[in-house]
Structures are given as structure tokens and as C-alpha cells.
Amino acid sequence: MKKLLPSLLAASTFALVSVALATTVIPPSFDDLVSRAEMIFQGTVTDVRSEWTGEGGQRHIASYVTFKVDDAIKGNPGAKVTLNLLGGTVGAETMEVTDAPKFKVGDRDILFVENNGTQFVPLVGIMHGRFHVQKDENGRDVVLTNDGAPLTDVNQLGKDKRAATAGRAISTREFKQAVQSRAGHTLP
Q1: What is the pTM assigned to this prediction?
Q2: Distance (Å, whole) CA 12 – CA 127
Q3: 170 burial class (0-12, 13-18, 19+ CB within 10 angstroms)?
Q4: pLDDT value, residue 185
Q5: Can you tell me the distance from the alpha carbon of 122 to that of 102, in angstroms, rounded to the nearest whole number?
Q6: Where are the beta strands (DSSP E) in the chain?
């Protein structure tokens, strides 16, 4: 047992360090967001549920966030998409992934999705792959970053956060046109 303890301690330390490193995210550029995403869509959250899954040492909480797709921008998401994310709350127990977006019913977002069902947060660049949509003071739908800052310049994403979020938020239409231009498509 004494020989096994150092090996278990080393393996546990490695696992903890690996998890900590896995949540360190370099903000992707706009081109990276668009090219890495398998699908990009604007949607509204219609359901959020969390449950225990797996067995033994693999047992964990997973959350399932369902979106009604309002506009398919890249790929073919269909009428609804359910994202499978690591973490959530079941009863009195909560499991959180650092910097992972938190969703609630009614949220309106534009999402850059990759590896849904196999990646612990299936958004390009974790929180960087989520953009909030909300009405501005004039009733116009505008785009905000995951942390609620107005997105003003897509070309500064992943480069200069202050420049990307300084000023008046761009409209969803402008944002979608920029995405489609990078993806090689045009909006109708």
C-alpha cells in the first residue's frame, strides 16, 4: 500500500493539473471562430436540465441546453439544437467548469458550436463561442460578448478586447453578415 500511495498521489496531481490547464483559453480570432465552428446559429434557450451521468470514477453532472433555432448561419442545425455540457446542478450538488457559459430559459444567443457531445463545452473557445443577443435602447437586436460587453468590431476578437468592445454594439444583421462573409456565404 505504501508503494501505491505515491503513484496515486502523482496521478491525482497530474489529473488536477490537466483539468486546470484544460480551462485556460486563448481567445480565438473571428476567423478562428468561424472556421472551427461546425455550425453557427442564432437561437433561444427553451430548456435547461442537468443530471448525473456515468458510473464510478466517471460519474459526473452533465447539462443539456436546448435551443429553438431562430436562424441557421453556418451548417444545418435543424429546428432545435441540444448542447451537451459538462457541469450543472442536481439537487444540492453543483459541478462547475471555470469560464463555461451559464444558460437559462429565454436567453437569446448566437453560438459557434464544435464537437457537441464529445467536448466538455462544445463552443469554440468555450465562453468565446457564445454571443448574447438583446435589444438596445432603440429596440434593435445587438450583439454582446459572453461577459455582456457590446461587440463593436469583429476583427478585434482574439486580438484587442478593449477595441472589440469599445463603443456602440453591432446589430445581429451586421454580425451575421460578417460571419457569412468569412464563411463564404451571403445572407438572403
Answers
A1: 0.84
A2: 27
A3: buried
A4: 59
A5: 13
A6: 39-53, 60-74, 80-86, 88-90, 93-95, 108-113, 130-135, 141-144
Residue 74: per-residue pLDDT = 95
Confidence at residue 7, expressed as pLDDT on a 0 to 100 scale: 45
CA-to-CA distance for 145 and 151, rounded, in angstroms? Answer: 6
Kindly list the averaged pLDDT for each block of 10 residues, start to end, along the chain of length 188: 46 41 76 96 98 93 97 96 96 92 97 96 96 95 94 92 89 95 69
C-alpha distances out from residue 8 to 15, 49, 96, 135, Å: 10, 34, 24, 53
Nearest to 35 by CA among 101, 104, 125, 132: 125
Neighbours of 69 (CB within 10 A): 18
Q: Which residues pair with 53 in a beta bridge?
A: 60
Enumerate domains of the chain plus CATH numbers.
27-183 (2.40.50)
H/E run at residue 111? strand 108-113
Q: How many Å apart are CA 84 and CA 81, to the nearest integer? A: 10
The pLDDT of residue 23: 56
Decide: helix, strand or coil at residue 21.
helix
Q: Locate 58 and state its grid cell.
A: 466517471
